[in-house]
Amino acid sequence: MRRLAGLLAVPLLLLSTAACGTEEKGSETAAMTNGLPAITAGAKYGEKPTLAKGEGDPPKELKVNVVSEGKGAVTKKGDALQVNYLGQAWDSTTPFDNSFDRGRPFDLTLGAGQVIKGWDQGLEGQKVGSRVEIGIPPELGYGAQGQGDIKPNATLVFVVDILKATTIPKAASGTEVAQENKDLPKVGTNTDGKAPSLTVPKTDAPAKLVSNYVIEGKGEAV
Asked: How many domains does the chain have?
């Protein structure tokens, strides 16, 4: 969502924590499934869903229902995720945002505070290829201030398809490449995840763009 950058990515509004979500099974009604609004159309992974209006009191803690479980890797903090989502307030029948219509997934780093806490907590430990429904209480969403079309103290419901999860290395790894050009800065080759040293020579800066390996990895080309 580039709207989600203005919706989910508001960590300053998220000042409290709550218990981790649970994947529950239970009774179903026409409007509710396992304590969350039912998906009334587009229930399959990859389809744009529609949600019923929530009935009764919304959950006071984070609640996660696995609609369909994928077979991919289990997500963990620090993973770069790519997801599709639809978000709706508990007491509404109209979504406030979704990525399905834009035809472009949303990217985030799990646990990095880029999104509301309900997302970071609800998506952790899920398998790639899964569709999950997440009920998010106000303290794990936008709290008493709200955000845009989201009213203050709103309980939010999201349907999220987890498309991809990539583990981001903490440091470069690969083969060191000789830095033979004396006119270029000398870059440290430490692989401890800390900032490398940089020694700038006392010469004029290059007049053209220069791109050289310091450590050459074995991954796919960008």
From this structure: 2
